[in-house]
Amino acid sequence: MEEILSNLSLATYNCRGFKSSMPDVQKLLNDYQIIFLQETWLAKQQLDNLSCLSVSHFAFGRADHDFNDGLVHGRGNGGTATYWSKNLKASYFSNCDGSIIGLRVFLKKSELCLINVYLPYCSRANTDEFLTYLGKLRQLCEELPCPNICFVGDFNAGTTNTFGGLLEDFCMENDFIISDYALLPQDTFTYISDTHNTTSWIDHFVSSFSVHQAMFNMDMITECIISDHRAVAVSIQCSHLPEFDDEVMGPQPSRIDWLRVTAQEREDYYHESNNLLDQLQVPTEVRHCQNFNCTEEKHLEEIENLYAELTNALLAAAFSAIKPTGKKNEGKCNIPGWNSVVKSKHQIAIAAFRLWVNCNRPKTGDIYRNMTITKTDFKCSFRQCRKNVEMRKATGLAAALQADKTKKSFWQKANNKNRSPSLPALVGGANGGSEIVKMWKDYFKGILNSENSANGSAESVDHSIDCKENYLGLEMPMCSFVSLASLLQKLPLNKAPGPDCNSAEHLLYAGESLLFFSVNCLTCVLFTGIYAIPV
User: Fold this and answer.
1) Are 299 and 332 in contact (CB under 8 A)?
2) What is d(CA 285, CA 268) in angstroms, rounded to the nearest whole number?
3) d(C-alpha 516, C-alpha 284), whole Å
4) Edge-to-edge order in the sheet of strand 100-106
């Protein structure tokens, strides 16, 4: 029975070293469903420590340094981590260097994308790097399939430094709101400098309008005192988020071509799935239920939750370890006329903007006027280019016709633009609507009722189940590790995933922990007669 999530509690904390701030992190885990940490100072070999603090939360982290790279001088630096409650239906994603970790929370009829960020500290030398990260955040906004987005964490951008102005420009250009500026008092500060004994406001919640409208009870957490940063928390009213057209939101099937997955990616998926699955817990009450026709709502809920946590862990591991394969040139926006009309003006505008930033962002003078003029010139040429897309495509084809004496490449381009898929005359030897329907009916009837032995399917099912335990003098069916492992090896590969978005490869290449939790989940189903797994 799926629970409708009403409110979501979220906290962010620059812990300045995970090991020294573990008491503070433990307090946050006791009170909040999602916790974002920055500056964990952990190496890649130490990330397993994150999952030791809570049995009710999943944990995922990224590190900036690796012990295998050689001798480490001093403490580590950077690193981010994310905790989320096991009751949430969510999956995570991250960039390669660990400064950005995203969490997609799937609600009943909506979705919420929360991104944990840790950006470079404010200095002139880091300006280009800071702008690069803002560009990555902008790209995330375009790639995410959901308008409910919130960037949370240590931006190192305050009201009194230059990075703060860059962040405000980013929000203005992309229709975001710095929610903490609006919901907290003006004298708020999130950072206390041990060296200069000064304060600044550099930790933020940068939200889309829909998420900002759903926020309430934002406050500073005064109990967290170990770090030089102060923790900030907020609640989000999920019912106020705009709903999607789909009746039920959930993780979408990832476009993973398992035939192209490298050996390293497969190994990463193996370890990542083991890491997430080891954080699960098998419910004890339903595990010892002796009622064949159990009607307990709690038992139904426990089986559903175990199955959801199991499948979500596999999806999250695959999302993290394997780069999805999409369509050719996916993520690239090819605009006809860009190179000839827009590219040079874009480069001039970027150079003028960086010069303006390096000169402390003056509001008057030649540098300011040059920045505004080049920016306007670029935007006008870009809009004009987008308006005349079809005309430029036709011009390109005409130029190809004129340049190509054989006309071969021209007709290839023309055919690509006018190509429409043709329907096959025969499908599996069947012709016509009714014959094709009958053919598919017989086909699926054959594979879904594959037991054709003389003894019948019931006896076959009895033989494929190992009787391992006895309750009330009766032998109870229990799945075994051996039989389940054998069945996994026989699964057909390179097929479409089921309703839970997991394909056969998700199961086959996962860590050995999958067998333990799958056996326990199926055993609970057989013991109670509760079939809570979606079909």
Assistant:
1) no
2) 34
3) 14
4) 90-94, 100-106, 111-118, 149-154, 203-208, 176-178
- Using CA atoms, how far apart are residues 307 and 303, in angstroms rounded to an integer? 6
Domain 8-240 in this protein, CATH class: alpha beta
pLDDT one-digit tens code per residue, 314-358: 888 887 788 765 554 444 456 666 777 778 888 888 888 888 878
Chain length of the chain: 535
Q: Six-digit token pair at 379?
A: 């935007």
Give the three-class secondary structure for 177: strand
CA 414 from centroid of its chain's CA atoms: 39
Return the CA Rg of the chain: 28
- Asked if pLDDT for residue 511 goes beyond 60, the answer is yes
Identity of residue 351: A
Q: What is the mean pLDDT of residues 194-222?
A: 90
Distances (CA, A) of 183 to 111, 166, 209, 236, 427: 23, 21, 13, 13, 61
> What single-letter DSSP state applies at residue 163?
H
pLDDT reported for residue 338: 74
Above pLDDT 90, what percent of the chain?
A: 19
| More confident call, 340 vs 276 | 276
Q: Report d(CA 495, CA 78) in Å as an integer.
A: 41
CA angle 54, 151, 382 (to 5 degrees): 150
Q: Which of 199, 157, 146 is nearest to 180 (CA)?
A: 157
Closest CA to 44 of 71, 25, 67: 67
Burial class of residue 47, CB neighbours in 10 A (0-12, 13-18, 19+): buried
* Domain ranges across the chain: 8-240, 274-325+457-528, 338-415
First and final CA of the chain: distance in angstroms? 15
Tokens for 270, please give them: 């193996």
